């Protein structure tokens, strides 16, 4: 009664462990984006290019245009090329944050003193919205994330400027 169920569990576990390992492997990312969570804003660094870094703050309600989303739009969007493997490195400067973009299936914690990494692939152009999903203090929900996915040739022109 114990040996047969143990053997069945082993037959289930070994293929699952192999798949988990393959899913965690990052295959030759085209771009590495470093994200640093601060209290109420995100900082981004394009590690593959020289001196491309910026802070991304939520747009205050009194400064919104008609085309902006309240509590979701930012002053500086992340610009990334579509149809490219993207590696993201996430950390935090003060408390634990969680960089979450549900449409991309990405949720990764940013912990002070630790560098976490994951990858994602965007196969269509557009805007992808997310927020900090960790209870990291007062106003923690006011840390929006906006990724703009554009064709690679437009991304190259953006990088050159």
TrEMBL record:
Residues 1-19 form the signal peptide. It is a multi-pass membrane protein. GO terms for molecular function: copper ion binding; cytochrome-c oxidase activity. GO terms for cellular component: mitochondrial inner membrane. Residues 1-27 form the Cytochrome oxidase subunit II transmembrane region profile domain. InterPro entries: CcO_II, CcO_II-like_C, CcO_II_C, Copper_CuA, Cupredoxin, Cyt_c_oxidase_su2_TM_dom, Cyt_c_oxidase_su2_TM_sf. This is Cytochrome c oxidase subunit 2.
């Amino acid at each position: 009664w114990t040996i047969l169920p143990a053997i069945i569990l082993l037959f289930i576990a070994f293929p699952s462990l192999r798949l988990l390992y393959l899913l965690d492997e990052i295959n030759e990312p085209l771009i590495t984006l470093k994200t640093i969570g601060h209290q109420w804003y995100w900082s981004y660094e394009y590690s593959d290019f020289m001196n491309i870094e910026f802070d991304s703050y939520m747009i205050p309600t009194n400064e919104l245009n008609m085309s902006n989303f309240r509590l979701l739009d930012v002053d500086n969007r992340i610009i990334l090329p579509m149809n490219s493997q993207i590696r993201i490195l996430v950390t935090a400067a003060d408390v634990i944050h969680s960089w979450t973009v549900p449409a991309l299936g990405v949720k990764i914690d940013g912990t002070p003193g630790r560098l976490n990494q994951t990858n994602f692939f965007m196969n269509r152009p557009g805007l992808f919205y997310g927020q900090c999903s960790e209870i990291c203090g007062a106003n923690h929900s006011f840390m929006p994330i906006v990724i703009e996915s554009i064709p690679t040739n437009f991304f190259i022109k953006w990088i050159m400027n």
